[in-house]
Amino acid sequence: MNKSNAQLSESLPKNLFPAHVICGDEILLVEETFDLVCKVAKKKGFQERITFEPKLKFDWEQLHLATNTLSLFNEKKILVVRIPNGKPGDIGARVLIEISSTMHPDNLLLITLPKLDKSIKSSEWFKAISNIGSVTEILSVEPEQMYGWIKARLKLEKIHADQTAIQALTNRVEGNLLAAAQEIEKIKLSAPQGIIDESFVMSLVSESARYSTAELTKNILFGEAKIVRKILRRLREEGTKPSSILKSIIWDLRTLLAASERIKNGDTVKVSLSKSGVWQKKIGMMQSALNRSSPAKLRMLLYQAGAIDRGEKGLRDALVWDELMALALSLSGAPTLTPQNIKILVDN
Fold it and tell me: Which residues of 33-43 are buried (b: 16+ CB within 10 A; e: fewer)?
């Protein structure tokens, strides 16, 4: 059953399928839809979550085993499968087809894929999963649609803004949905009563431009380790939540990994980044990060990011800000390999 994001939001409280497939290259919207499914599933008793990511070379048979193994605590499980390139391979395809015919009601299969293409749609495994579940396609927000997206997002957050304010914010984020969402969160926290205008947006932007998550990630990608250290410390002092920073870094890491996979398949760097959902104005900084980061290093950093995320959620003992600093500096090219970093990778 194919649904748009809006249709999914309306139907989920009543209809939770054995499998949910979320497709698209707009990482922010994919993750928000992913969170929505998890939130509804949790209310329906799915408390445990297990994540499998083929890009990190997991054993597909472990997924197969997980679908046939009851939880030690008799909890319903969400089995998350992330396939960034849309290709599970022969073994993965076979496992997904078998799972589609043997799904236990205490298991929910949640799959994320890139934008659907003909090869994915025509594959037997995709058809098998689609037959038992819901497919939600996240449409890309084109540059000419950004103004409308921001306007709708502001309305959703009950923020009243005039046209000049919306246009100023549109110009500021340069097509980056994640940056737009972060700026709207700042506006939400400090907007006065009534209608905000361009002067308010610009004053807020000018105050936060130097020490923002967007500036942090830009300097990480360009390899400016000294500036990264300074901005991250200031963000911590200002009370920024580490989860918002980590979400941005994870987005970049997954995008870089997807691009590196396309480069292996013969695409040029620019083409691979474009196909991975990178806006034209961000290609230069992402290319800079790709030039100094091997796929192996990117996978290692994604492992670290996952461990930090679990620490931030209280699922492991962690010095979250220290580990986040090490992650940011490592992606920016600074040597940060320490016994503690190695321990994080071994333990997780």
Answer: bbebbbebbee
**pTM confidence score:** 0.59
The domains of the chain, with CATH numbers, are: 2-137 (3.40.50.300), 143-209 (1.10.8.60), 229-347 (1.20.272)
- 64 sits in which H/E element: helix 60-67
CA distance 24 to 235: 31
**CA-CA distance, 78 to 18, in Å (whole number)?**
10
Instruction: Give dist(CA 305, CA 293) in Å, integer.
Output: 16
Mind listing the pLDDT tens digit for each residue in 208-237?
Answer: 555 678 888 888 999 988 889 988 988 887
CA distances (Å), 287 to each of 40, 257, 283, in order? 38, 12, 6
Helix axes 320-331, 339-347, angle to 10 degrees: 100
* Rounded to 5°, angle at Cα 248 from 245 and 251: 150
How many C-beta neighbours within 10 Å does residue 142 have?
9
Task: Check pLDDT > 50 for residue 165.
Answer: yes
Q: How far apart are CA 309 and CA 327, in angstroms?
A: 12
Beta-strand relationship, 19-23 and 107-113: parallel
Token output for 252: 């970049």
The token pair that represents 139 in the structure block: 């449409």
Say if strands 76-82 and 46-52 run parallel, antiparallel, or are unpaired: parallel
| Residues 102, 67: Cα–Cα separation, whole Å | 8
